[in-house]
Write a structure and sequence with these properties.
The complex is a heterodimer of chains A (506) and B (206). Chain A is an all-alpha fold and 506 residues long. Helix content of chain A is 66%, strand content 0%. Helix content of chain B is 26%, strand content 28%. Classes of the chains: A mainly alpha (506), B alpha+beta (206). Chain A: Belongs to the major facilitator superfamily. Nitrate/nitrite porter (TC 2.A.1.8) family.
Chain lengths: 506, 206
Amino acid sequence: MGDSTGDTGSSMHGVSTDKTGKYDLPVDLEDRATVFKLFSFAKPHMRTFHLSWISFSTCFVSTFAAAPLVPIIRENLNLTKQDVGNAGVASVSGSIFSRLVMGAVCDLLGPRYGCAFLVMLSAPTVFSMSFVSGAAGFITVRFMIGFCLATFVSCQYWMSTMFTSKIIGLVNGTAAGWGNMGGGITQLLMPVVYEIIRRCGATAFTAWRIAFFVPGWLHIIMGILVLTLGQDLPGGNRKAVEKKGKVVQDKLGKIMWCAVSNYRTWIFVLLYGYSMGVELSTDNVIAEYFFDRFHLKLHTAGIIAASFGMANFFARPAGGYASDIAAKYFGMRGRLWALWIIQTAGGLFCVWLGLANTLVTAIVAMILFSLGAQAACGATFAIVPFVSRRSLGIISGLTGAGGNFGSGLTQLIFFSTSQFTTEQGLTWMGVMIVACTLPVMLIHFPQWGSMFRPPSTDPVKGTAEYYYVSEWNEEEKQKNMHQGSVAFAINAKSEDGRNAPSTITV
Amino acid sequence: MAIHKSLFASLLICLLFQISHGATKERLFSELEKGALEVTAKPSREGVLDAGIDKLSITWKLSSTATKEAEFTTIKVKLCYAPVSQVDRPWRKTENELFKDKSCPHKIITRAYDKSPQSFEYTLERDIPTGTYFVRAYAVDAKDHEVAFGQSTNEAKSTNLFSVQAISGRHKSLDIASVCFSVFSVLALLVFFVNEKRKAKIEQSK
C-alpha cells in the first residue's frame, strides 16, 4: 500500500491496491457507493462520511461558539449593539474567501488534506479568544475562526467522490446537515460548559474564555483523526485511475473559467445566500433575541436557539431526499421546483417569526423557518453537482461562499444598526428570502429543462454528454482528459425522471 | 401517533400558561412614589473605580416627604446604569413596565425595612461591566411589589454618578495554555504531513 500521490495530486493514503471484492458497498463506474449505509464505519465510503461531517460540525461549533455567550461577552468587553452585529458579520465573512480557496484546493490537492489543514490551522484562532480585551479583538478573532467554515466545501467534495449521483442529494444533505447541526450544538454546549466552569470557581469574565478551549480541543482531535483514518479516493492505484481517463493535473485557470462562465453558478450563489446565509445569521442572533425579548435565562435561550440549529439533523437531509424523490418522478425539473417551494416557504415562516409576539408562537415559527431554510440548503446541493463536472470543487466553493456572503450582508443590513429592532430585522430578512429565491426559475439545463421550460429536443446539444463534455476544448479531448465527464454523463441519466434507465452499477 | 398527541398536548399546555401569564396588569415605574428614600453612594476614592477592589459607602433613610411608609417591608438596593452607559445597548434599556426594565440589573443588598438610617459598605463585584452608574433603593411591600424608591442621583440621572472599570477576565496562565495548545496543533499537522511525504518518497523509490 503506497502513499504516493494519486489522481489530481491527492494523496493515496489508505488506498488499497488489491482490487478483489474490495468494497463493503455496491459501487458505480467511478467506484462511488450507490447505497448509503448510515451506521457503518467501513472504509472508504462510510468512514469518509463520518469523518467529513464530524469535522465540519466541529467548525460550526467553534464559529458560533461566541453567539450564546454574547450576553456575558458584551459586558466583559464593553460592546455596543454595532460591535456585536459586526462580530457576527465578521464570523461569516472570513469563509467567503476561504471557501473559494478550498474549492481550488480540493480540485488540485484533494479533500483530505484540505480538511485536515484547515481544521488544525484554525485551532489557534479558537484558543486566541483568551487574549481578547475589546471590540476590535473580538471582531478580529471571530473573523479568523470563521475561516474554518470552508470545511463545508471539502465535505461536499469528498461526498461527491465517494457516493453516486443518484443518492447525492441525500448524502450531501445528510453530511452538510449534520455538520450544520454544530451551530445548534454549540448553543447548548457553550452555556453548559460556561456554567460548569463558573461553578468550579471562575468569575464570569474568565469562565467564558476558558469555555473556548473546548471547541479548540475538538479541532485538534478531528484534524488528527482525518489525517490518520481518512482517504481521498474510493480506490484504484494511480495507473488504473489514469487509464479510466481521470485527469493528470487540471489547470486552475481553466477550471475557474469553466465555473464563472456558467450563469447557473451565480444563481446558486445568490440562492444559497438566502438559505444557508439566513441560517447562519439566525445562528448568530437567535439566542440573544430570545434572551432579550422574552426575558429568558441564558441557558433557556440557548436551548431554544439550539433547536434551530439541531433541526438540521433531519431537515437538511430531508431536503436532499425530497429533491431525490422529485428527481425520480420529474427529473431535474422536479429538483428545481422542490427547491423553490421549500425555500419560499422558509422565507414566509421567517416573516412570521419576526411578527410573533408571544414565546410559543415565536418558537413554532422559528422551528418551521428552520425546516424550510435547512431543507432548501439540502435541495440546493442536490442540484449543484450537476452544474459542472469539471469544476465541481470551485462551484461548490463559490456557492458556499455565496452562503456566507448572504449571511454577512443580511446581518449588516438588518442586525447591526439601531435602525431595526431584531424582530423587524427578522421580518425583513424573510421578505428578502422570498424575493431572492425567484431566480431559480431562470435555471435551465438543455438536457433536462427548467421550472417552466421542457428540455431541448436537439439530438446533439440536448444531451447530458454534450453538456458535460463541452467543458473541455478539442485539445484536451485529444488527450482524453474528458473521459471522466463522459462517465459522469452516463450516470447522470437518473435526472431524466421517469424515463431514466435503472442504476448502472459495476 | 402517540408522539403527535404528546406534542399537541405540550403545545396546548404552553399556550394556556402563556394566556394566564399575560392576564395580570403590568406594574409601572411611573406609579412608584419618587424620592421616598434618601440615598447616598460615596465611592471609596476619586476617579474611575476598579471592579472587585473599590468600595461604595451606601446609606439610605426615610425621606420626610414619604407617604407610603406603612407598606414598606423590604428595601432592595441596586446598581443602575446612567444614560450614557445605555447608549447603543438595548439590553440595558429603561422601560416603564417594571418587569421589562433592564436598567438596574445588579443587586447590591436586600434588607428588611428599618425606620432608622441604614448604611452598607459595598465592594464592587467582579462581574460589574465598565460603565457609569448610580444607586437606587426600591421599597418593596409584603407582596414583593415595588411601591416607592429613592436614588443617589437626580431625576435626570445626571448628578453624583461614578464610573467603574471592569476586570479584564484575562489571566497569564490562560494565555500560556492557549499558546501551548496552538503550537501543538500546528506542529502535529506539520509532523504528520512531513512524515507522509517522506513515506511516499520511500515507496516511490522502491
